Amino acid sequence: MADALCGPSNALQNFQKHTSVDRTLQQDRLTHRHSPPQGFRSSPGPNAGILDPEFDAFQAGHAGPPQPDFHHLPPHLTQHPPPPQFVQAPQGPDWAADFQRLNISPLHPSAPIQHSHAPQASNAASWHQDFMKQQVPAAQAPTYQQNMFGSMSGHGMGGFAGPAFQQSHFGPMDSNTVSEVAQGKQQAQEGALQFDDAAFEAAFKQAQKDMLEAEVSNMREAGNAAQERAADSVPAETDPILLRIKEKRPNVYLAIKLRSEIDLGRPSDALPYLDALETLERSGSLIDDASEAKWCVDALQKIVNRDAPQVIKTRAESLITAINERLMSAYPLLASRVPVTQESIWEDLEAAGYTTRTPLPERVAQQPQQEKKEEQPVKNDDDEMAETAGKLLERVADNTSEKFQKSQFLELMRRLRDREVRVEGDKVVEVNSAQPSTFPLQPAGVPEIDRNILNVASQDFGTVMDSEVGHASDPTKTEPRTDEVSDQFNYYNINSKYHR
Amino acid sequence: MLEFRTQGYNGYSVKYSPFFDSRIAVAASANFGLVGNGRVYILGLTPNGIVAEKWFDTQDSLYDTTWSESHENQLLVASGDGSVKLFDITLSQFPIQSWKEHAREVFSVHWNLVSKDTFLSSSWDGTIKIWNPTTNDSLITLPTHSCTYSAEFSPHSPSILSSVSSDSHLRIFDLRTPASASNHLTMNIPIHTPPKPRMGAAAPVGIPPSEALTHDWNKYRDTIIATAGVDRVIRTFDIRAPAAGPIAVLPGHEYAVRRITWSPHLSDVLLSASYDMTCRVWTDGSAMGAGGVKQENMVQQDPMVLGGGNEMGKMVRHTEFVTGVDWCLFGAEGWCASTGWDERVLVWDCRAIMQ
């Protein structure tokens, strides 16, 4: 009982509940709404989709009296006054046909109603089979007819459910048969026509595609040539990291260089990169990758917002417009999903050892996986602890007071979340040393690396480049300029593979 | 302001001795009570500051303590392993009695203030148990069906007790009623009920239920109980009108309120300790003259405030969550002690922080 109520599998979990209002009750109500009662149609079955339109038609067509008073039919009620039965009798076949058309009964191989759907499924090939099947009830029709009109009043529900069920189209049987056969033929012809059309379409499309491909490859070549030209026009790169980026993503490289030159206050050095970008834009190869183009636009926007020389500003502005125009026309709205994923660029940058930002959501997703691999046996408790600690920290994340920043408890939560410490038995131990330590855990000799330093530095740059995060392109907000020069050293991620 | 450091242990509860004005008990736990040992300190207030006269270590975290009302050297502790232990400070090391019936962490213990022969404990296992220190088993078990963070005997009656729990309800048990299907439960007041609409004020909006962490009986008005918890608001209820909702609402704390206690000297003054690392002194507006002016002007600062109460002062010296606070029963009114996760016990005069 209490486990369900209080239910912390660790002590922290319960404490965490204190930090905010519990909304589980409201959420409960919401989730319950998502389970609609499954009514009589317990399993959709093969008829599921078919049934609905038929039922609609049934309702629309026979809004009047499709109900032949079921309770008149049971045998023990046949002593009732006959007039209603006589009135109803002629309607019987009609109703029965409708009833059968509803497909409520499991699909019966000999039930002719199947054939109204069969032509759609197996187009022309089976129309003659349809015709064959159609003949069977037609031949038997007379007996049923007699059965119907002769002993209708004596028939109970059982009669309807049994053989009478087969009596599909009593009254209009003949005409119906004919028309269906005719339809079958017609459909066969249509099928043949469609085939021709399709072949033509396909051939036409192929031809068009070939032409387009040729055109595109031409453009590619031109673009590559332009890229090479553009790359040639800029000064040679000496930094091995940037060199790698240059090879892989020339556009991104140009944008980065452009921005850093302007940040360093050397607009004259920045001009070649701007020239190169403009060349690439004109050749159209800048927007080969929409993500890269977006990146360039963001970087340029930043330059415009900064106090760069007026010449560069205007050029950057016009370049932005040009890129955007080209982007929008190359990737029309709704026509195709624009593949703007800057994450891959960041990944590439990081792989190259050049990083300006740690993509936080990714890190959150990746970290548990890595941890799981490392320490399987004690995983569960630690994971929960870390998760709970993380949630708790989120709750107080907006509190900027000095006390909360310095709080040892919150620091412990941080370390729990980041897996620097974990709970083992009744001790809090460091993950690496596995030495029991009483909190506060004092750094032994070497001062600890503050892992937040990189975050802070990268956030500064991250907001600059990543305008998707929001308000980064807000021109009213001027960024702190104190670290303008040291900014370039923030690019280096000392944790990256390159430095190991 | 006097200070004592409970090195290595984070305070959870502090209680003044009802027999000596210079003795304080502090229940504390290692590692913020997450895992590890517990320790109960017996502190003496001396001219040279606070000294630890004695301490007892326990295997599991300690969450609450209370002094025996019948024996000046004995005190109870509530332990994380589900046990309640009785220590005698004249003995050296071990508890003189340990009762283990609760299935989960015991979160509060309280001695009967009138008959003085029983005490109670409440636990996360969803029960309140009543004990006699001379017997080995509990006398009565009262189910609450939710984590019961706080339970207390009424200071006015030997057979009435109350509890608040994570289901946001204040329960009143009367042990004189027959032990029928209701298990002595006589009243079950939803704490989150909004106050009744008033003239000249917008109708109060509904508030979602939230865990109630603490409550206390008023020492002078025998039907008034104050509650507080996760929703950061202190409320007072009159158990004569349980359906009327709170009669006073005191917002102000920025995080959950962990402990509240009424003054033993003044009928309208409350002291609270909170996860926002502050202790605050409040008046609930029931005293003559208090809070009346503002209502006449019809300009209340905060529309949440009800009953004319207000915050009178704030003590911000703690640097971690404050978890325990208690008034000194002796001497000049206003002296109190507080403890928190910053491993400190502070003894201070709350008149100094009032505006």
UniProtKB/TrEMBL annotation, chain A:
GO molecular function: peroxisome matrix targeting signal-1 binding
Keyword field contains ATP-binding: no
Region (Disordered): 1-20, 29-83, 356-383, 468-487
Coiled-coil regions, chain positions: 202-229
GO BP terms, alphabetized: protein import into peroxisome matrix, docking
Keyword vocabulary terms for this entry: Coiled coil, Repeat, TPR repeat
Protein name: Uncharacterized protein
Feature: compositional bias, Basic and acidic residues: 370-380, 468-484
Source organism of this protein record: Zopfia rhizophila CBS 207.26
From TrEMBL, chain B:
Main location: cytoplasm
Tagged with keyword Transport: yes
GO cellular component labels: cytosol; peroxisomal matrix
Domain of life, per lineage: Eukaryota
Any one GO molecular-function label of the UniProt entry: peroxisome matrix targeting signal-2 binding
Subcellular location: Cytoplasm, Cytosol; Peroxisome matrix
Ranges for the WD repeats: 99-141, 250-282
Keyword Protein biosynthesis: no
Pfam family, one: WD40
GO BP annotations, alphabetical order: protein import into peroxisome matrix
UniProt keyword terms in alphabetical order: Cytoplasm, Peroxisome, Protein transport, Transport, WD repeat
UniProt cross-references to InterPro entries, sorted A to Z: PEX7 (IPR044536), WD40/YVTN_repeat-like_dom_sf (IPR015943), WD40_repeat_dom_sf (IPR036322), WD40_rpt (IPR001680)
Family: Belongs to the WD repeat peroxin-7 family.
Listed name of the protein: Peroxin-7
Organism per entry: Zopfia rhizophila CBS 207.26
